[in-house]
UniProtKB/TrEMBL annotation:
Protein name: ABC transporter permease
Subcellular location: Cell membrane
Entry annotated with the keyword Coiled coil: no
GO terms assigned for molecular function: transmembrane transporter activity
Biological source species: Streptomyces pseudovenezuelae
Keywords of this entry: Amino-acid transport, Cell membrane, Membrane, Transmembrane, Transmembrane helix, Transport
Keyword Cell inner membrane: no
Length: 277
């Protein structure tokens, strides 16, 4: 067989790389749909509806689930976020300080409060503080205790986020401010920190979402009927009605807040990436 005959023979046809990728995606879609359909067909939707979707029980929750439980959850979250942000800023600046004891204290604080479960912090605020300081009342009652507990936990994470944001600001910004006669403190407050917050705004918003869910731990502080948040409110009604519909409604109320906040975080991250490009 000559070289010419070899060239005239038809080449074996195979799938191209793009066709292989398309085939792989198609198989994955089919498997995913098959799993979802199998799960949907195997579930006992009637029993689920009876236990989690009783319309008459859900109707009994309104408007208190919004005007009381959701309102308290939002208040707890915002107060904890404010305390955490202020304390986190202080810890971050201490972490960046040239004074050794400040850096050591900030480092120990961050490691401890990032390592401990939030539940233990709530128990510490509700039990250990009154025992250690008899007769001492935290300002704001339950709201003050929740704000302090959530703030202590959030500050450890926010401090590292703020520190990273400050260090992400070009050093030339501080040098330019100093050349204009700004003191180091004024340059930090007026020039560096505002730019740092524009950088760290998405992760701070994400921290707000996490605090919103952690507010459910308020039940370990012992709250009155008027101080209940969504989880406590749903659990109490579920026990009273012997049905889990209140828990489902409470979960949907959480999603009413966390889903829009999650969307805001993604939008801010996308804009931040566009600004970098």
């Amino acid at each position: 067989m000559t070289a010419t005959d070899t060239q005239l023979q038809p080449r074996k046809k195979g799938l191209t790389r793009r066709q292989k990728r398309s085939l792989s995606r198609g198989v994955q879609y089919v498997v995913f749909v098959a799993v979802v359909v199998a799960f949907a067909l195997s579930a006992d939707w009637g029993r689920l509806k009876n236990q989690f979707a009783q319309a008459d029980i859900a109707d009994q929750m309104f408007p208190d689930v919004i005007t009381l439980a959701l309102k308290n959850t939002v208040l707890y979250t915002l107060s904890g976020f404010v305390v955490g942000l202020v304390l986190g800023m202080v810890i971050a600046l201490m972490r960046l300080s040239s004074v050794g004891p400040y850096r050591w204290f900030a480092g120990v604080y961050i490691e401890i409060f990032r390592g401990l479960p939030a539940l233990l912090i709530f128990i510490f605020i509700g039990v250990a503080v009154p025992l250690a300081f008899p007769g001492t009342e935290i300002i704001g009652g339950t709201y003050g205790k929740v704000a302090l507990a959530l703030g202590l936990v959030a500050a450890a994470y926010m401090a590292e986020t703020i520190r990273a944001g400050i260090q992400a600001v070009p050093k030339g910004q501080m040098e330019a401010a100093r050349s204009l006669g700004f003191s180091p403190a004024r340059a930090m407050v007026s020039i560096v920190i505002p730019q740092a917050f524009r950088i760290i705004l998405p992760p701070l918003t994400n921290e707000l979402v996490l605090l919103f869910k952690d507010s459910s731990l308020v039940l370990f502080l012992g709250v009155t009927l008027e101080e209940r948040e969504l989880s406590k409110y749903g659990r109490d009604l579920a026990s009273t009605t012997a049905n889990s519909t209140p828990i489902l409604v409470a979960g949907l109320c959480y999603l009413l807040v966390t889903i829009p906040l999650g969307f805001v975080v993604r939008r801010m991250e996308a804009k931040a990436q566009e600004a970098v490009k």
